[in-house]
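Case study 2.
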Amino acid sequence: MNRPDVINYAGLKFTVRYTPDPYKSWDSWGYVDFAKNQITIATKSEGKPIAEINIAQTLLHEVCHIVLEYAGMGGSTDMFEPTNEYLTSLMSSGFTQLYLQNPDLIEYLNETFYDETN
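Prediction:
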């Protein structure tokens, strides 16, 4: 199974970098740098390999940040309180874009999640 190295969204290309050496200041296994259009995903934590399903979940988590950022809901702590229906509409539109523009991402997630459950 091949991890995707590019995520396309909103007319942009985000490169995906997988690293065994995450930044010490991270409190998670991934990070989106919007200034560089780059996602960085850790492959080790405290010197031990991270399970592939956790790498896949982290990538999906970071991609969710991209979807919300370009839906106008990123970075600010002064947001309105959206309804469930509003968030659902944003996410379904965003994930439709992701699905259509990123067949490698969908294949990777499907294979990784399927392998983990079987």
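The CA atoms of residues 68 and 74 lie 6 Å apart.
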